[in-house]
Amino acid sequence: MKTNYLVKLSALILLFALSSCQENNLDEVSKKQGKLERQTKSSLKKKVLVVGFDGIQFEKIAGTSTPNLDKLKIVKGYAGGIDNTSSEQKTSSGPGWSTILTGVWVNKHGVTDNNTSHISKAKSVFQLIKESNSGLKTASVVTWGPIHDFFR
């Protein structure tokens, strides 16, 4: 099962690497690389990549030999809310990913289960980024398509 997630992660990273090259022409790519080398570090664009493994316990992956993943900054995510409070929610994909992508608990986003008739009442990080700067680019690649349905 872990191999399946590593294959998906590798494919995702490859996809992002390929999508950053707009031309297939190697000369154009070489020119871009040369231009980037001339830029100072402060002028380089900052980028973020969030990779989520749904259903894997952090402690299990942390205790396993994963040399390539160990090069990344992996932190534990918690998407279940606090027991016996208004933030308590199921740890199923719909509520969990809605919490991760909005930064608020179920009592604010309103996605209580995997039923895609629930639409998040809170804006996703993608919506917030576009509102703050429409020129920025965002992308979401998922293996469970209904994640996108919560943010119409």
* Main sheet summary: none
Q: Kindly state the mean pLDDT as a whole number?
A: 76
Number of helical stretches of at least 4 residues = 7
- Helical fraction: 40-55%
Total E-strand runs: 0
**What's the N-to-C terminus distance?**
32 Å
The best one-word shape is globular
Judged by helices, strands and strand pairing, the structural class is mainly alpha
Uncertain spans, ≥5 residues at pLDDT below 50? 14-26
* Radius of gyration of CA atoms, rounded to a whole number: 18 Å
Share of residues in strands? under 5%
Number of domains: 2
Q: Please provide the ordered H/E string of secondary-structure elements.
A: HHHHHHH
Structure description:
- The protein is an all-alpha fold and 152 residues long.
- The chain has 2 domains: 77 residues, no CATH class; 74 residues, no CATH class.
- It has 7 helices and no strands.
- 12% of the residues are buried.
- About 9% of the residues have low confidence.
- It comes from Tenacibaculum singaporense.
- Keywords: Signal.
- This is Type I phosphodiesterase/nucleotide pyrophosphatase.
- InterPro entries: Alkaline_phosphatase_core_sf (IPR017850), Phosphodiest/P_Trfase (IPR002591).
- Pfam families: Phosphodiest.
Quick structural gist:
This protein has 152 residues and is mainly alpha-helical.
Characteristics:
152 residues, mainly alpha, 0% strand, 7 helices, Phosphodiest/P_Trfase, single chain, 2 domains, Alkaline_phosphatase_core_sf
